[in-house]
Amino acid sequence: MSTRAEAAQGLRLVSPTFLYVLVMLAAPLAMVAAFSFWTQDYLIIDRTPTLDNYRAALGEPIYRTLLLRSVAISLTVTVVTVLLAFPVAYFVAFRVKRQQALWLFLITVPFWTSYLLRVFLWKVILGYNGVLNATLMGMGFTDAPLTFLLYNANAVVITLAHAWAPFAILPIFVALARIDRSLLEAAEDLGDGPFRRFTRITLPLAMPGVVAATLIVLIPTMGDYITPRLVGGTEGLMIANMIQIQFGQANNAPLGAALAVTAMVVIGTISAGIFLIGKRLGGRLT
Amino acid sequence: MTRLSSNWLAVYAIIYMIFLYAPVVLLPLFAFNDATIIALPLSGFTTAWFEQLWGNQTLRTAAINSLIVAISSAVIATLLGAFAARAAARYSFPGKTGIIGLIMLPLVLPEIIVAVALLVALSQLGLSLALWTVVVGHVLICTPFAVAILSSAFRGLDRELEEASFDLGESRWGTFRRVTFPLVLPGVISSLLICFTISLDEFIIAFFLTGTDVTLPVYIWSQLRFPARLPSVMALGTILLVLSILFLVLGEWMRRRAARRQGQDAAAGGAMTGVA
Amino acid sequence: MNETNGSAPMIELEKTVKRFGTFTALHGIDATVQEGEFFSLLGPSGCGKTTLLRLIAGFENPTSGSIRIAGHDMRGIPANKRPTNMVFQSYAIFPHLNVAQNVGYGLKRRHLSRREMAREVGEALEMVDMAGYERRAAHELSGGQRQRVALARALVMRPKVVLLDEPLSALDKKLREQMQRELRDLQRSIGITFVLVTHDQEEALIMSDRIAVMFEGRIAQMATPEELYRRPASRRVASFIGVMNFLPARATGETQTGLVVQIESLGEVVLPSHTIPAGLRVDDIREVGIRPEMLTVIFDDAPGPRHSFEGQVSGNSYYGDMTYYDVVLPGSERTVTISMRNTANRAVVRPGNPVRVGWSAESILLFRQED
Ligand SMILES: Nc1ncnc2c1ncn2[C@@H]1O[C@H](COP(=O)(O)OP(=O)(O)O)[C@@H](O)[C@H]1O
Ligand SMILES: [Mg+2]
Questions:
Q1: In sequence order, what DSSP letters do the residues of A13-72 get, joined into one string?
Q2: Residue-wise over C181-202: b if at least 16 C-beta within 10 A, else e?
Q3: In which element (H, E) is residue C222 found?
């Protein structure tokens, strides 16, 4: 088969899936973008292009606060999740010898519990009469229930760090597992101690995995709205909650669209920055 | 690093696993707990909450809706995933990175964005929300998983095997039937199971796109507001968890069988590793 | 040497060109393989051997030129309709089928009875010395066994041509040598045409009736193993097949018995007419070649060959049965390689010692082609 015929065959094969994504994802996303420049009054859509929605999204304090808070919470969640996950990935990649598949499986199991219930159960764990407080008081660590656990940004961070754990561990594990062990031995042979070897060889080579983990956690976190609703209280609400409100009760889809686009642009820019920094740090990214 | 830090690492990993499993362990505990309040200490053993589920008509309808959505989504996503994975694993064509990238995009796109985009599109087209609109959304988010799982199945399929079949006089269709399909079948089943599980558990898209026919997660969401209903929600969650794990073990077993058949290292990571 | 002389041509390639995009993998191949011949395509990696084999098998179509098999033009005939069967480099043993199912794979379409099928499969396995392995799973086979099953799977189809793409390269040295002998003997006994691709010159020499040496998509020389070794057509073929010493030289005149050639360090010599390749332009001679085994160290004062020179050993490599010496030529910095069989009462000459080296005019090679 010639290269031309191969290309044609490949395109033919991919076309059903490509068409589906084009019609069901790309086109609707483009529509959202278009919507964000329109206005809505009850059920009537006015298609005169305007920047009013963006002016509101970026100018009005409530939206700006939610946006900034979402970015801050997402970044915190991402950093916490990746930092917590790295040692586990390292442990499974380098210390677990025969049971690697089992460990990986066990890491993914909690992810398959109903997401709603997982978040709800964190509420049960972190609450005033919650499991954690009951345990701490039962063991005599505290006299009164801790109140800073639930209905704030802390709760959102803890819950999301839990929700995204496998997505952070697995890419890092894959990157670490791919590292050729003889490279580590070579570094040691050339005089590096464990710490220097880690910072000069292991970490740079694991960088693609770390960057992948960061992006996989960061982007969807920005759009989460169950967790803030259930455990965030009012000071833990995020932009996705507002988007949902605009499309729902507020009946202002164009503003919702503008908020969605703004959030995506912001998170996209941050992601691109992280990607570039990671590339610089890791030398090579796949 | 050193022995000492190695031990610390193991201790840390175990603490981390406790963190991961804390909510999962609580779920069955409260499901069998003889109390209406979801809190410690536990008061006694009961299966009453499970029995309550049985007679619940709304729940039954929601479960059937969820099954319809999950089965449809799994079949369609696996089919679409198979096309894309085969193309990606075997051929090079112009725009390949972009096309595959777009197909995999829902993996990093927040679900609320997918949901909102489809909502806008559907309302613009004047289509009303129904179960099929949920399926459309679920296919979008399941397809990347199907592509990832099936890509590794197709990549493990040595091109020379198909050529050998052709060389021995078999037709294209015969080659597909006798060589290609049997070798990727475990991957297909594994993809079906994982897509089914994802769809069954998906809430945000279902919440936005479902009309009057609710799915199980949407039903659960509506119940979370009523404290009296919580214990039976826990029971329902327990059942779903057990089913999910069952499907996953089955899916993983299939994946490994596929790898073994193709002579690969079966232990080289789970299905989720392929996604990452 | 060539027992197939006079039989019909089995594969005829005429001006066969293959391009991949802008890259030309084969520049107009002309070759004929006779029925019953063991024919090898020999050349360095990337020279287009596999591509040529895949054109014959029907996995690729030629950009131009024609391929005929058993007298039929193969244009438009797909791989599954051609009278050829392939032994793949990876063996391509179907991993989900056992040995018998693998070997019987292609017979399925011939609608044989269960009994006939089992007999055919059994016979094919017998041929490759794998009788009794019918129920073995694919993953339980060793490398050598996979190779045998792949061969049986091709032979059971009773093809006119068996195509083998580096079938032995994955095996270790001992097993490879054993399989080379077995494969050749099997081919001789069943008489099916074999086309073997290899990059190993020794393998090609041992197994083939004829060899086509390929460089960069062209056939440089097509000949029997002996002719290829003794009369390489070009410097490049000469250095690819075995070891060859090259010495600058030019023609200075002609006599009734041969050609007078001035060779650096060795002096003037008359090369007998029968050693001079037809079509050689005397003015184009720039160098001559001589094989290491054609240079002999003269150990005692016994009368040696007609010509000899005094050199100094600069290094040696001991191979057990043989020793290779590097000898510096008189009045020059140039060294030549000499091989000597080690006999019971002969010591290895140490570097630094002088040696007398004998040679004869018959063993001097002239190259017909420029590279
Ligand atoms: N499908 C193809 N597309 C592009 N180039 C190819 C293709 N197949 C082979 N080639 C190129 O053709 C040349 C010859 O390849 P091949 O026949 O495999 O060499 P050999 O078997 O002698 O090692 C190589 O340079 C290779 O890169
Ligand atoms: Mg080759």
A1: HHHHHHHHHIIIIIHHHHHHHHHTTSEEETTEEE-S--SHHHHHHHHSHHHHHHHHHHHH
A2: eebbebbeeeebbbbbbbbbbe
A3: strand C218-223
Nearest residue, CB atoms, A18 vs list B21, B99, B136: B99
Nearest CA to ligand 1 atom 24: C46
Whether residue C4 lies inside any domain: the answer is: no
Q: Is C234 exposed, middle or buried (0-12, 13-18, 19+ CB in 10 A)?
A: middle
Cβ of residue C49 lying under 6 Å from some atom of ligand 1: yes
Judge if ipTM > 0.90: no
Q: Report CB contact under 8 Å: A3, C60.
A: no
Quick check: is C48 in a domain? yes
Chain-chain contact of C20 with A1 (C-beta, under 8 angstroms): no
Asked if residue A162 lies in contact with residue A227, where contact means CB atoms within 8 angstroms, the answer is no
Distance of CA C46 from the midpoint of ligand 1 (Å): 6
Q: In the predicted model, is pLDDT for residue B218 greater than 70? A: yes
Same domain as C305, residue C182: no
Q: Is the CB of C105 less than 8 angstroms away from the CB of B171?
A: no
Question: For all residues of chain C together, what is the average pLDDT?
Answer: 89
Q: How do beta strands C38-42 and C210-215 pair?
A: parallel
Domain enclosing residue C206, as ranges:
9-237
- Reported confidence tier of residue A179, pLDDT bands at 50, 70, 90: confident
C84 at B interface, C-beta within 8 A? yes
Do C344 and C280 lie in one domain? The reply is yes
Whether the CB of C25 sits within 6 Å of ligand 1: yes
CATH of the domain at C51: 3.40.50.300
Q: C54 in ligand 1 pocket by Cβ < 6 Å? A: no
**Do the strands C193-198 and C161-165 form a parallel or antiparallel pair, or are they unpaired?**
parallel
For A52-284, CATH number? 1.10.3720.10
**Residue C366, domain member (yes or no):** yes
Q: Are residues C166 and C210 in the same domain?
A: yes
Rounded mean pLDDT, B95-110: 91
- Best of B161, B162, B168 to substitute, by most chain C Cβ atoms within 10 angstroms, is B168
Q: Are residue C38 and residue C150 in the same domain, yes or no?
A: yes
User: How does pLDDT run across C256-306, given as a tens digit for each residue?
Assistant: 888 999 998 888 899 988 888 887 888 888 899 999 999 888 876 666 667
Q: Which of B27, B90, B113 sits opposite A223 (nearest CB)?
A: B113
Is residue B214 scored above 60 in pLDDT?
A: yes
Q: Give residue C95 CA to ligand 2 midpoint distance, Å.
A: 23
Nearest by CB to residue C88, choosing from B160, B182, B183, is: B160
Indicate whether C222 and C265 sit together in one domain: no
The alpha-carbon gap from B108 to the nearest alpha carbon of chain A, in Å, equals 6
Structure-token match 């399929």, residue found: B157
Element (H, E) at B122: helix B111-124
Mean pLDDT for chain A? Answer: 86
The verdict on C77 and C185 lying in the same domain is yes
Domains, chain B, ordered by start: 58-261 (1.10.3720.10)
- In ligand 1, which atom is closest to the CA atom of C18? 12
Number of domains in chain C: 2
Whole-angstrom distance, CA of residue B226 vs CA of residue A233: 18
Q: Are residues C37 and C125 in the same domain?
A: yes
Look at residue C55 in the predicted model and tell me its pLDDT: 95
Distance CA A54, CA A249 (A): 20
**Do β-strands C193-198 and C38-42 pair in parallel, antiparallel, or remain unpaired?**
parallel
Q: What is the nearest CA distance from B250 to chain C, expressed in angstroms? A: 20
Same domain, C201 and C290: no
- Which of B3, B11, B26, B112 to mutate: most A Cβ within 10 Å? B112
Determine the residue of chain C that is closest to B162 in CA distance.
C92
| B74 pLDDT higher than 50 | yes
- Among A21-30, A266-275, B240-249, C126-135, the minimum mean pLDDT is found in B240-249
| Chain A closest-CA separation from residue B114 CA (Å) | 7
Q: Looking at beta carbons, which residues of chain C come within 8 Å of B169?
A: 80-81, 106, 109, 157
Does residue C147 belong to any structural domain of this protein? yes
Over 50: is that where the pLDDT of A285 sits?
Answer: no
